[in-house]
Amino acid sequence: KRPSRTAVCKGTGFEAAPMGWATAVATTRFSTTSTNLEPSPAMKAAQETRELAFAHGYSDFEAWLTSGGDDRSHIKKTGANKYHIRPQPVAADAVFRGSCTGNPPTARGYAAAAELYKTKLELVKDDQAKLDAVLSEIYENQRSRLANVLDLPQGVEVIICPSGSDAEYIPLAIAKMLQPSKKIANGVSQLREIGAGSAPAAVGSYFSTHAPLLGKLPEGLKALNGFEGIDGQEITARNRDGSVVNAAAEMKNFADREIEAGNYPIVHGVFGGKTGLRDADMPGSRDGGDSGLGVVDACQGRFTLKELQSWLNQNSLVLFTSSKFYQAPPFCAAVLIPPTIADKLKSLAPPGPVSLFGQDGLGAFVTDKELSACLDSWKPLLRRSDANNIGLALRWEAGLAGMEALVATGTSDEERSAKITEWANTVTDMVKSESFLDPWCAERSIISIRLSKSGRNDGEWRSMSELGDVYRWMSADVSSAVPNATPAEKEALSKPAYIGQPVDVSETHAIVRIALGVESLLSYLKDKDATLTEDRAAVSKLAALGKHFDSLRKSDL
């Protein structure tokens, strides 16, 4: 039974957590807007998104969890978003291994976000000036805590963004700041294995029907104001036979060509795409950002602290989210800016034109509150006390709860990596034991699985559209649709198990994914056998779906 609209789930509370809410920042904020009779676009966007959640009986807090994003977070007629995710923890007896796609709030994250809402946001949510000040303090606190859990070197700055795709706009604006007279060319790798919105965002285009602080886009609005004229280079993750493209070499050639042409290149490296695939090299920024920017897309969050620090040491900008491995609800992201580049930005004028920061530009995604000190020059241009992203703050609180819980275990990078490898090897063996399944590849904590049509390794595999049905069936009890299943298969088919959505990796097949997330890693560290029992349930259901695929297709479930 869902709580009433006004109810808020009580949990342990973030104030009691080891690295929870700190004393409010003693900063006075002066709003440039007075009380408005007409709600702002950001207020309208949040209300419209929340109404979609209210229509399915979700509480006020749960509705706020879905707000401040784009169409991917909207609750649909099914009562869930496009990833079959609800703004509530999954049932205690369900299995969750879908952190590589998107996450419902974990019980830990839900409790932490609910406590933040109750103690800091609920009383001021209808007073935009007060809410503006409170959110500024919350974001400052969350930036500080993120720096602590990631052990960021002194001088690294954190910019908060609504999603990993939205975060792509920040390097573009920084590039315009560092080299205002040069043409910008942005190279993106692992096309089809990064978020679908990343490539359009990397050239300054909108990628959704909605923007977090604007709502539904006006007809004909394609590119953000001020971001016109950016060239792009897209490099696919794989050839059509599934073999890996040497993206690092392609990116180097791209950067050399652009520099020779007198342009300013932004070069991406992906450290873990949808299948966990990692580019061979992570690019650094050339000449401390004077000749080009290196951007590491680490949005999956499947890296060690040592790897993160190596990227920052070579002046890479790092895109990070806590809504993949760390299991915050969709979505919440950050851009980490290394000290060398942060110091340069502090002395530079904001990029032009002024419309870049307007409601149809960056202002559709962030305000001054989400920015750190190195972008102080942007803040007067983005200061809007009537644009307050409550949902983003709640999602970051949920993600930080998982991050801080992992830090609290005291395990080192090396110990965690060893346990992840052990888990991946064990689950890969489970998959190998099923005739309808094949562990196509395993990359750290993501296992990519293809499904046989016949139960034999004869080259006949399920397609992308077929695996779309499998992905949907995994999250539901479908046992009644297969009357000829064995008792063991019926038990497997009855258990909801959330996995990663399909990925088109080859002209012969697609894959689905089983991925470890922070909560399942914490569980594995505490009770390995209990965790692997859940994995066995997910693998058994996937195998049963493979065997009985045709019967399920006929059932119209």
Count of individual beta strands: 14
Q: What is the makeup of the main sheet? A: 7 strands, mixed
Low-confidence runs (pLDDT<50, min 5 residues)? 1-36
Question: C-alpha Rg, in Å?
Answer: 23 Å
Task: Give me the number of helical elements.
Answer: 17
Q: How far do the termini sit from each other?
A: 24 Å
Largest sheet strand order: 2-10-9-8-7-3-6
Helix content: 25-40%
Give the mean pLDDT: 92
Strand residue content: 5-15%
Shape: globular
Structural class, please?
A: alpha/beta
Spell out the blueprint of helices and strands.
Elements: H1 41-54, H2 60-65, E1 95-97, H3 107-121, H4 128-149, E2 157-161, H5 169-178, E3 184-191, H6 198-201, E4 210-211, E5 215-216, E6 231-236, H7 247-260, E7 264-270, E8 293-298, H8 305-313, E9 317-321, E10 333-337, H9 339-346, H10 379-382, H11 390-408, H12 413-432, E11 437-443, E12 446-451, H13 464-474, H14 487-494, E13 497-504, E14 510-515, H15 518-526, H16 528-547, H17 549-555
Parallel strand pairs: 1-13, 3-6, 3-7, 7-8, 8-9
Antiparallel strand pairs: 2-10, 4-5, 9-10, 11-12, 12-14, 13-14
Helix pairs in contact: 3-11, 4-11, 12-16, 14-16, 15-16
Descriptive report:
This protein has 557 residues and is an alpha/beta fold. The protein contains 17 helices and 14 strands. The chain is globular.
What key phrases describe this protein's structure?
single chain, 557 residues, alpha/beta, seven-stranded mixed β-sheet, five-stranded mixed β-sheet, 17 helices, 14 strands, 36% helix, 14% strand, disordered N terminus
